């Protein structure tokens, strides 16, 4: 059932955590939902087509029958909630603060994401004020062959693969929403409030997203592009960016 709904209807997420969410809802919760629907339909057919079915069913008086009709749904709910605890843990997991060994100790990277009208600001926390850049929609006359219209930006968010990346999302003006469909992640950017979440990408690639909260006239022109690269490529890019923009080392 999971593979049918996943491949044919919903597609596949490029995240092990959100694939677990998909499997839980499609292959676990949906099974109970289908079971309840079939049970109710069978009761309705029995009442309609069986002779005196209405009288036999609703006139049946048994304490044991009433007891199990009350207890079985309770056990089903407990069963569903019990197996959702791991998903709740993974969804709310946040990397602790940086250790004294350095920002990348324990595979932890902090990125502050600020939504503004109508662009995104990315700050790599702990690296200095130089590690900050804006990400604007790329205009049509600046695009290269093969790039996606209204989805490509001038500065991508670069992150290493198989690293725990903590994103701190907020807004500098109105409400925005940082949304990556293929990763299965969406978090609102609220002014005066920082929403924190953990991201871990399992494969290299380019992930496209957009602002999914109506934020004004330029709402349609706030794309998100996250490029996931191997860790050695990420650190090389980081050094090149530092020598280019850091006034102290330049």
CATH topology of the largest domain: Immunoglobulin-like
Largest sheet: number of strands, sense, barrel closure: 5 strands, mixed
Strand order of the largest sheet: 3-2-1-5-8
Give the H and E element order: HHHHEEEEEEEEEEH
CATH class of the largest domain: Mainly Beta
Determine the fraction of residues in helical runs and give it as a percent range: 25-40%
Which terms summarize this structure?
250 residues, alpha+beta, Immunoglobulin-like, 2 domains, five-stranded mixed β-sheet, 5 helices, 10 strands, 38% helix, disordered N terminus, cytochrome-c oxidase activity, membrane
How would you describe what is shown here?
There is one protein chain. Helix 2 (16-49) runs antiparallel to helix 4 (63-92). The protein starts with a helix and ends in a 5-residue tail after the last helix. The protein has 250 residues and is an alpha+beta fold. The chain has five helices and ten strands. The relative contact order is 0.13. 38% of the residues lie in helices and 24% in strands. The protein folds into two domains: 1-97; 108-249, Sandwich (Immunoglobulin-like), CATH 2.60.40.420. Strands 3-2-1-5-8 form a five-stranded mixed β-sheet, with no helix packed on it. A five-stranded mixed β-sheet has the order 4-10-9-6-7. Mean pLDDT is 77; it is low at 1-12 and 94-107.
What does this entry show, briefly?
By secondary structure, the protein is an alpha+beta fold. A five-stranded mixed sheet has the order 3-2-1-5-8, with no helix packed on it. A five-stranded mixed sheet has the order 4-10-9-6-7.
């Amino acid at each position: 059932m999971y593979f049918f709904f996943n491949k044919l209807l919903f597609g596949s997420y490029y995240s092990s955590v959100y694939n677990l969410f998909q499997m839980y809802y499609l292959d676990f919760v949906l099974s109970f939902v289908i079971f309840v629907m079939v049970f109710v339909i069978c009761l309705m057919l029995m009442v309609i087509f069986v002779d005196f079915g209405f009288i036999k069913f609703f006139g049946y008086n048994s304490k044991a029958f009433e007891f199990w009709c009350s207890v079985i749904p309770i056990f089903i709910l407990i069963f569903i909630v019990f197996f959702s605890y791991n998903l709740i843990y993974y969804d709310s997991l946040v990397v602790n603060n940086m250790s004294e060994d350095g920002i990348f100790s324990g595979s932890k990277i902090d990125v502050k994401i600020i939504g503004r009208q109508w662009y995104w600001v990315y700050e790599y926390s702990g690296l200095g004020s130089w590690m900050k850049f804006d990400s604007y929609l790329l205009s049509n006359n600046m695009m290269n062959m093969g790039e996606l219209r209204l989805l490509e930006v001038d500065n991508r968010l670069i992150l290493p693969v198989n690293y725990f990346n903590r994103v701190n999302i907020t807004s500098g003006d109105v409400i925005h929403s940082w949304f990556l469909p293929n990763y299965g992640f969406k978090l609102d950017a609220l002014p005066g409030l920082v929403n924190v979440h953990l991201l871990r990408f399992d494969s290299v690639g380019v992930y496209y997203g957009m602002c999914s909260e109506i934020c004004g006239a330029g709402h349609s022109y706030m794309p998100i592009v996250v490029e996931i690269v191997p860790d050695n490529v990420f650190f090389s890019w980081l050094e090149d960016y530092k020598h280019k923009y850091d006034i102290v080392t330049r």
